[in-house]
Amino acid sequence: MAAAAATMSPDPTGPIQPNESGLPPASISETVNAAAPTNSAVTPEHYSGEGEDDAPRSPVRKPHKKTGSLRMNGQKREKEGSSSQLMIEKFQDRDGEHLTTIKQYRPFGRTETEFRRSDELVSGRRVGTKWERSHVHFAPLSVPLQRRLQTLIVLAHTLCIACFLTTFFLLAAIPLTWPLLLPYLLYILFSNAGTSGTLSHRSNFLRSSPVWSLFASYFPARLHRSASLPPTRKYIFGYHPHGIISHGAFAAFATEALGFSQLFPGITNTLLTLDSNFRVPFYRDYALAMGLASVSRESCENILSKGGANGEGMGRAITIVVGGARESLDAQPNNLRLVLKRRKGFIKLAIRTGADLVPVLAFGENELYDQISSESHPMVHKGQMLAKKLLGFTVPLFHARGVFNYDIGMLPYRRAVNVVVGRPIKVIQQHEPESRYVDGMHAQYVGELQRIWEEWKDQFARGRKGDLEIVE
């Protein structure tokens, strides 16, 4: 009843007119008949016109001859106090018939701002966007001279074998050099300088050259000792891990850049490498001058039984990278996996020669290069192991930085390498080592390595992903 009373007229003589109460028209026909007053009759209270209706009307045109419709008029009515607007459009076809349509003024209910935005320009994608996100970071040109020299020395050492081989083949392409190269090749073939143990080619001048200080400061590398070593004994240093190229071992034991002779006075240390390196033209002479020797059993026994203070090897030492090529395949940054469980040959060598064992752990050696993981690429790993079985060595698939960039190349990263020399393990000489004694010495050796790791990991391996792991 309340709703009905609201719609009843106070005057019972007639119904309520929609235009008097402010209600919308009852039908479209009613709207059409009452929507187009003349310009003179328009008042601002009831009608507001825009566009064509504000101008004087033009004379009536003749019927359009083309097919279709011709817009004749556009009118807009807005009700007071309401946000909705109606647009009345009249059309006339070619037969002169009039058509009228009524629609909202705002198309599809959009606001005037939205309608204006839809008319803005639409642009294509911006060019050159992929190049802005390049993953290669180039080195700046304004680098101090000292850093440039460091990079040059490390690059020369990394590529020295390739450089010496290239030089040899270039000379071999010149017939005039053949009378010199042929005798040299015969000398290399029959020479035993790498295994004799005399160290006659060793050059202290070259080992103490200032260029190696630039080499060591590139990373930088440092040498630390846990205890002093008396020069009245002979020693076997076991270097761990192998890494990719063992830069830390070269800096610590093949040069005087880190002050080995000051930390261990009276001891002559020889870094050992593959015997095949002493068959590479020119490089073998460079390696012999740096004091390197072959890692063969004959070479090790000759070095530890000849020369020294008493002519029997006292005061001499050799450094063996125990993990070898197999361990290089596990060289991953922030991980330390040592191939050591079944490596007991160097233990037997120490017992036969009476040399004390000295474990060495190089923190940061594995961080110098990035390498593909054997777990994510098992087929590649199998191929590398096959190459090691057939050739005696393998080639890890690695990369680091370049000369002019920080992401691609064969140069090692500039990351600190801390070489920690552990405490010596006394060995009793036996010409025929017993298996039980070998196992006991091996256990002591592994225990000293673990002690070094536990004592210094918080200082030198802060970014580690796990603890020391002994495998194979």
Topology:
Layout lengths: L1 H6 L10 H4 L6 H7 L34 E10 L6 E9 L4 E7 L7 H6 L11 H4 L12 H14 L1 H13 L5 H13 L13 H4 L3 H7 L3 E5 L9 E6 L6 H7 L6 H4 L4 E6 L9 H7 L3 E2 L2 H9 L10 E6 L2 H5 L8 E3 L5 H9 L2 E8 L6 E2 L6 H14 L6 E2 L17 E5 L13 H26 L8 E3 L1
Parallel strand pairs: 4-13, 5-8, 5-10, 6-7, 6-8, 9-14
Antiparallel strand pairs: 1-2, 2-3, 10-13, 11-12
Helix pairs in contact: 6-10
Protein described:
- This is Diacylglycerol O-acyltransferase.
- The chain crosses the membrane at residues 152-174.
- It is a multi-pass membrane protein.
- Pfam families: DAGAT.
- With 472 residues, the chain is of the alpha/beta class.
- The protein has a domain at 145-471.
- The protein has 18 helices and 14 strands.
- It has a seven-stranded mixed β-sheet, with helices on both faces. It has a three-stranded antiparallel β-sheet with strand order 1-2-3, with no helix packed on it.
- It is elongated.
- It starts with a helix and ends with a strand.
- Roughly how many Å is the radius of gyration? 46 Å
* Share of helical residues: 25-40%
3D shape:
elongated
pLDDT < 50 runs, ≥5 residues: 1-9, 35-55, 66-84
The CA-CA distance between the termini, in Å, is: 97 Å
Strand order of the largest sheet: 4-13-10-5-8-6-7
Number of strands: 14
- Strand-pairing-aware structural class: alpha/beta
The overall pLDDT average reads 81
What profile does the largest beta sheet have? 7 strands, mixed
Question: Per DSSP, what share of the residues sits in E-state strands of 2 or more residues?
Answer: 15-25%
